[in-house]
Write a structure and sequence with these properties.
The complex is a heterodimer of chains A (196) and B (175).
Chain A (H helix, E strand, L loop, with lengths): L1 H19 L5 E2 L4 E4 L2 E5 L2 E4 L4 E4 L4 E5 L4 E4 L4 E2 L4 E4 L2 E4 L4 E2 L4 E3 L17 E3 L4 E2 L4 E2 L4 E2 L4 E2 L4 E2 L2 E2 L3 E4 L4 E5 L20
Parallel strand pairs in A: 1-4, 2-5, 3-6, 4-7, 5-8, 6-9, 7-10, 8-11, 9-12, 10-13, 11-14, 12-15, 13-16, 14-17, 15-18, 16-19, 17-20
Antiparallel strand pairs in A: 20-21
Chain B lengths: L6 H5 L2 H8 L2 E3 L3 E4 L4 E2 L7 E4 L4 E4 L4 E2 L4 E4 L2 E4 L4 E2 L4 E3 L18 E3 L4 E2 L4 E2 L4 E2 L4 E2 L4 E2 L2 E2 L4 E3 L4 E4 L4 H5 L5
Parallel strand pairs in B: 1-4, 2-5, 3-6, 4-7, 5-8, 6-9, 7-10, 8-11, 9-12, 10-13, 11-14, 12-15, 13-16, 14-17, 15-18
Antiparallel strand pairs in B: 18-19
The chains are: A mainly beta (196), B mainly beta (175).
């Protein structure tokens, strides 16, 4: 009985997330929004892959595209509460990406979609399996490689390679990661002076 | 719980007002509040998430601004008279292991001393120990041990200068 109730709640939530995300152009299978709400303003295309989770429990998630802008989120991606993603031209987020609370990802400097002409949008790319910790800001033109970890409250500018831990403002490479190998490294704020 | 929200607050009945001003409590752990703890109203509610077996201890007269996230998997202790700015995050677990998507990380307790001031958007990571009378500037990331009486800033937070002038304490504004 309890399982049936759980299944019903899950199903209702799936319908609810479809309704909240109805302005998106494509929502994959079992992609769902839990908790609170989302602000979706779509003047271009917004695509979300399969089995992605948007968790808006404590603050709403914001997805915006400007005229002809493209916002693409891959499969099995997790977006935490308070995240703001704005694409005036192009923001592409890969598969299995984890985006922490209150992250800001934008391809224009001012963050607005009606930006002045001087604020030329520069596309943002986030590779598969990347993890953005809490309060990370991704600036226009930034590229984050596959499997890369960006530590808490960092600001990402330019290009970050694959399989590294990056931290700071602007984020610099602190450590290299072996892909898919268990490590006990502390993730956020890695540096030499404070080894874990 | 004072009414500072203007018309919107005036239209809301008093019981809604009281209910909305408190933090959201989640999980099966223990949350222990001292006397005269204040959770400020704001655009985003604060929340305290204590996982089963976890303990959150908040001392007397602690002031917590809006949007504060306290996520506790082991133990978080906040000393008396401490003030947390808006959107502060206290995370005693990383929730991920870098370069490994399958294993679970170990949490580490956070200890925050007395009369500490955390500015807006400060992130405190696992195993952090902040001494008494510390001032953490807004936007910093705190990890490791911060010695008492210091003023720190940056990612990760480093001392700005060794002593704490009394005048600065008086003029401190959260955010």
């Amino acid at each position: 009985m309890l399982q049936l109730r759980h299944a019903l709640i899950q199903f209702a939530n799936l319908i609810r997330s479809r309704w909240i995300l109805r302005r998106c152009d494509r929502i994959g299978r079992l992609t769902r929004l839990t908790g609170g709400s989302a602000i979706v303003e779509n003047r271009g295309t917004i695509e979300i892959g399969h089995r992605s989770r948007l968790s808006a429990h404590f603050a709403p998630i914001e997805l915006r595209t400007g005229d002809g802008g493209r916002l693409s989120i891959g499969d099995r991606t997790f977006v935490n509460y308070g995240v703001s993603i704005q694409a005036a031209e192009s923001v592409v987020i890969g598969d299995d990406v984890d985006i922490g609370p209150y992250c800001v990802i934008s391809d224009t400097e001012a963050g607005g979609l009606d930006a002045p002409a001087a604020d030329e949008p520069r596309p943002v790319r986030i590779g598969n399996g990347a993890w953005l910790a809490t309060h990370v800001i991704v600036r226009p033109g930034a590229t984050i490689g596959e499997g890369t970890v960006v530590a808490a409250a960092s600001v990402v500018e330019g290009e970050l390679p694959s399989f590294v831990i990056a931290a700071g403002s602007p984020a610099t490479v602190k450590r290299h990661l072996a892909p898919n190998v268990a490590t006990t490294a502390s993730l956020a704020g890695v540096d030499e002076a404070h080894p874990t | 719980m004072r009414s500072t929200q203007g018309l919107a607050a005036a239209r809301r009945p008093w019981w809604r007002h009281v209910r909305r001003s408190g933090p959201e409590l989640l999980g099966g752990g223990d949350v222990r509040l001292g006397l005269d703890v204040v959770f400020a109203r704001g655009p985003v509610r604060s929340h305290i998430e204590a996982f089963p077996g976890a303990i959150v201890e908040i001392g007397d007269r602690v002031h917590v601004a809006h949007g504060v996230a306290i996520s506790c998997a082991s133990k978080i202790t906040i000393g008396e008279d401490t003030r947390l700015g808006p959107f502060v995050s206290l995370l005693d677990s990383d929730f991920h292991v870098a370069g490994d998507g399958t294993s679970r990380p170990l949490p580490g307790p956070i200890v925050i001393g007395r009369n500490v001031r955390l500015g807006g958007r400060v992130v405190v990571l696992r195993n952090a120990e902040i001494g008494d009378d510390v001032v953490v500037e807004p936007g910093s990331v705190v990890r490791g041990v911060i010695s008492p009486g210091s003023r720190v800033r940056g990612i990760p937070a480093r001392p700005l200068r060794p002593s704490l002038a009394d005048a600065d304490v008086e003029g401190w504004v959260p955010g």
